Every structure is written in C-alpha cells, then in structure tokens.
C-alpha cells in the first residue's frame, strides 16, 4: 500500500493517531478538527463501524477509491471527485516581496480562519483544524485575507491545505506565496508535500501544476449521513 492510499485512515493510525475517535474498523477526527472519517475497508464491517462511530443521523466525510454506490442506511449529503496531487520536486520558493509579511496563525486567529474558509470553501475547516499543523496567513489593514497550512500527515508526507484568498484580494499572488512557504517548511523536515483539489477547479489545478504538483490518483470525497436509525 502506498502511504497516500486510504489517506485519512493512514493519518489516523500513524502520525495523527492522537486525534482519532475509534469504533470498530472506523476512525474519525473530532468534529471541530475537520469532519473527516475513514474505515480500513469499504465493506459491510467498515460501514457498520462507521455507523456506530457517527451515531443516528450523524454525518461524516470519507475518501473512497471509487465512486460511492448506494447502500441501505446511508444518504449522500454532498461530495465531489478530488485530484490527489504530489510535489516530488517543484519550483524553488522565492522570498516574499518586501511589502508582504507572512504570519504564523494561532488560536486567537481561529475565528477569522473559520470565517475565511467558510467564505471561500477550500475544504472542511473547523475551530480546531489549526491544531493539525502550521498555518500561515497574510493580513491587509488588520484583516486576514489569505491563508494556507498543513492538514493530513502520514510518514514521509504532509498535506498542504486550506489554501484560500478573500475574493477582494485574489489575483495578487498571495496563495502562491503562502503555498511555497508551507511547502518549504514541509521539505525542510524531509517530507513530501501533497494536496487534494476538486477535479473541476481548473484555476487551482493549474496553479498547483505550475508549482510542480502532479496528479497521483482521483479520490471520491463523499459526505454521508447515517439514516439507519
């Protein structure tokens, strides 16, 4: 198995096991971290474990290696195909322009981080997601206008995540600057950056390709609700 296969499960059984809530063959992050869940295998036992973990009418987001097929007791809330992209080499990070200050974000910044990600929707982000790794941001007139950070971690790899810019501040290169700094820090630890992006988000995919990311596989992000009662 490749370290990035069944990535949520592998993260919750290796480098991020301390976050895992466990029931049988299913694990999930606490809801305030991101609402991501996984099972060891997408079989009857896996789904039964997930149902027990989520509880009646509970929801959880999973990554599947193939499109979701209807199962009794479950309804689909949302989802989309994602490209899993890996940057083995990539471009060398250039220092930010003198007028741009990169800030490390922390707990006091969490409300603004949630507000920005709610507006721009780069992916699941909760009030405790920043606990998963380093998050960097750019402010203008005191307002957080762009951010990027780290989310899923498995041996040898760290995910670049929550890359977003406020709609009033797009086109200024903020996302690229922050991504390159996040990637530099990941590489300095001897790890390889990877990320997930919606397959239909061509603008983001093109940016990531320019930075050296290549598509490894397509994964199927599905938000499921346990309706079995």
Low-confidence stretches: none
List the domain count as a whole number: 2
CATH H-level superfamily title of the largest domain: Gcn5-related N-acetyltransferase (GNAT)
Helix content: 10-25%
* Strand portion: 25-35%
Query: Within the CATH hierarchy, at the fold level, what is the topology of the largest domain?
Result: Aminopeptidase
C-alpha geometry: globular
Q: Please provide the count of β strands.
A: 11
CATH class of the largest domain: Alpha Beta
Strand sequence of the main sheet, in spatial order? 4-11-5-10-9-8-7-6
What is the number of helical segments per DSSP (H or I, 4+ residues)? 5
Description:
The structure is a single chain. The protein folds into 2 domains: 7-81 and 219-226, 3-Layer(aba) Sandwich (Aminopeptidase), CATH 3.40.630; 85-217, Gcn5-related N-acetyltransferase (GNAT) (Aminopeptidase, 3-Layer(aba) Sandwich), CATH 3.40.630. It is built from 5 helices and 11 strands, in the order αβββαβββαβββαβαβ. The chain has helices spanning 7-13, 44-54, 110-120, 174-188, 202-210; strands at residues 21-23, 26-28, 37-39, 59-64, 74-86, 103-104, 135-140, 143-154, 157-165, 192-198, 214-226. The strands form 2 sheets. An 8-stranded mixed β-sheet has the order 4-11-5-10-9-8-7-6, sandwiched between helices. The protein has a 3-stranded antiparallel β-sheet with strand order 1-2-3, with helices on both faces.
């Amino acid at each position: 198995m490749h370290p990035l296969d069944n990535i949520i499960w592998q993260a919750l059984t290796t480098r991020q096991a301390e976050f895992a809530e466990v029931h049988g063959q299913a694990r999930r992050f606490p809801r305030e971290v991101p609402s991501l869940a996984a099972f060891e295998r997408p079989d009857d036992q896996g789904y039964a474990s997930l149902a027990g973990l989520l509880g009646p009418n509970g929801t959880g987001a999973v990554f599947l290696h193939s499109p979701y097929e209807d199962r009794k007791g479950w309804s689909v809330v949302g989802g989309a195909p994602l490209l899993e992209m890996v940057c083995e080499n990539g471009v060398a990070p250039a220092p930010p322009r003198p007028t741009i200050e990169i800030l490390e974000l922390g707990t006091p910044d969490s409300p603004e981080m949630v507000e920005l990600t709610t507006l721009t929707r780069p992916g699941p982000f909760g009030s405790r997601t920043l606990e998963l790794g380093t998050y960097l941001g750019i402010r203008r007139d005191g307002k957080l206008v762009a951010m990027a950070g780290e989310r899923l971690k498995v041996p040898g790899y760290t995910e670049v995540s929550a890359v977003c810019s406020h709609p009033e501040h797009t086109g200024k290169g903020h996302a690229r600057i922050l991504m390159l700094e996040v990637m530099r820090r990941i590489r300095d630890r001897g790890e390889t950056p990877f990320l997930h992006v919606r397959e239909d988000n061509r603008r983001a995919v093109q940016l990531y390709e320019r930075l050296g990311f290549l598509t490894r596989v397509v994964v199927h992000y599905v938000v499921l609700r346990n309706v079995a009662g």
